[in-house]
Amino acid sequence: MAKADYSADEMMTIAAARLLRDRQVCFVGIGLPSAAANLARLTHAPNIALIYESGTIGTRPDILPLSIGDGILAETADALVSVPEMFRYWLQGGRIDIGFLGAAQVDKYGNINTTVIGDYRKPKVRLPGAGGAPEIATAARDILIIIRHSPRAFVEKVDFITSVGLLDATTDRRALGIHGNGPAAIVTDLGILKPDPKTRELVLASIHPGVAVEQVRDATGWPLRVIEGLPVTEPPRSDELGVLRDLNERSKRANEKAVA
Amino acid sequence: MAELMSLKQAVSELIRDGDTVAMEGFTHLIPSAAGYEVVRQRKTDLTLIRMTPDLIYDQLIGMGCARKLIFSWGGNPGVGSLYRLRDAVENGWPRALEIEEHSHAGMANAYAAGASNIPFAVLRGYRGTDLPKYNASIKFIDCPFTGEKLAAVPAIRPEVAVIHAQKADRRGNVLMWGIVGVQKEAVLAAQRSIVTVEEIVDDLAAPPNAVVLPTWAINAVCEVPRGAHPSYAHGYYGRDNSFYRDWDAISRTREGFLAWMNRHVLGTRDFAEFQQSALA
């Protein structure tokens, strides 16, 4: 097969961006979610309201911010609020359609770990921790997760639940008083996983062009099930690729510039 | 009434060994110069509170100033790990560090409760996470009106809050703008407070509804231009992203970290000298 003229990361970001709709209100994590959310805003969803936990509401950064509170987020926001107001009125207040998260580890039920690898009290690797994610994961109506596929990232059971997904086979999130629906899709560089409506287990729901199912299974730490009639993700269109590459190029140039 | 004084005097008079100290600033307006001064004065046994420890607490922890950290996200934003924080948690170097770990929502609410002078904060939070298993100060209570189970966390009441802002006037009223984080709550929750500012002016010219901390709610105001570097001060200078990347290499080993801190922080008398030494 001819070598694709786009990278696996580009496919991932574009596939994730396509899941966002115009006029949605999206609470955005830094890194991969931020790239996909801004791509959506610059392509098919010009009226999406992007919210970052630093207090910036309806922000339209021209470049991808390196941190969650870069100046460009404040300068281009419709509204700027304090961090307590952000979490109390806007997130807990129930005004978020989509919580868009990254993760270090995600398990079979879409639970997220960003806290520790290994035992909490004697960690093998100490990760940054929770940030805003635990409450985003429960307060937003739906959750999207974007993460690169690998056996270390996709585990049968996370070492630590930082932000809850669909828990397990037997516990319903509503029994814990959680209002949001939880993970609707997990977008990776190999495909898109979605929870089986009956078992809640993540199953392969779409595979990116040129990727073999075995390759996805090898990169997943549990016996991954595949939906019947598995569709192939539509490859990146040239307009999507053009906007994404421009965005990445602008961001790289701007973030390399030393302090003014 | 706030007193205008040097940062050296403010840290010396207002921060004591063993204090609980909150140095806030959410990505923006991080009081870095004040952090260096705490290291210079070899303050010890501090309980440090901060939502995002950032480089400022990596430095204080690596220099052995802290015995405990209360936080909700401990990374180098956009770069990766805080190696000194990790070394303290994973290996107890240079001393064991007790950690109390929250979510951002939990801490933001706890600061607001502290500023409101009530004993705890209540939120729809921590549902389904493992954090309460390891943090005894996250509890669940029943709403007395609806019976709904809600999370409760104790109010944050630091002995000292330290923040950085853009401007103060000569009476010590402080104005800040841009991403304002939890700084107002931190100052109002604390018993004592230090505010470093970019400049002291005759007239703040603050628009109505601006975030202004009146002079009588603050103890010390110190003029420290660029005192938030490598974070930024909206309207003054941008975030020094390359310094955040450089920190990854500086802090990766104990030896490299100590050499840098000894040379640029302990080996300088104040923030102006530090900048000439480390950033020239």
Q: Keyphrases for this structure?
A:
heterodimer, A: 260 residues, alpha/beta, Glutaconate Coenzyme A-transferase, nine-stranded mixed β-sheet, three-stranded mixed β-sheet, 14 strands, B: 280 residues, ten-stranded mixed β-sheet, three-stranded antiparallel β-sheet, 32% helix
Describe this structure in words.
The complex is a heterodimer of chains A (260) and B (280). In chain A, strand 8 and strand 9 form a beta hairpin. With 260 residues, chain A is α/β, with parallel strands linked by helices. The longest helix of chain A is centred in the C-terminal third of the chain and has 19 residues. The radius of gyration of chain A is 18 Å and the shape is globular. Chain A has one domain: 3-Layer(aba) Sandwich (Glutaconate Coenzyme A-transferase). In chain A, helix 1 crosses helix 2. Chain A is 26% helix and 20% strand. Chain B folds into two domains: 222 residues, Glutaconate Coenzyme A-transferase (3-Layer(aba) Sandwich); 50 residues, no CATH class. Chain B has ten helices and 15 strands. Chain B is α/β, with parallel strands linked by helices and 280 residues long. Chains A and B meet through helix 3, helix 4, strand 9 and helix 5 of A and helix 4, helix 5, helix 6 and helix 8 of B.
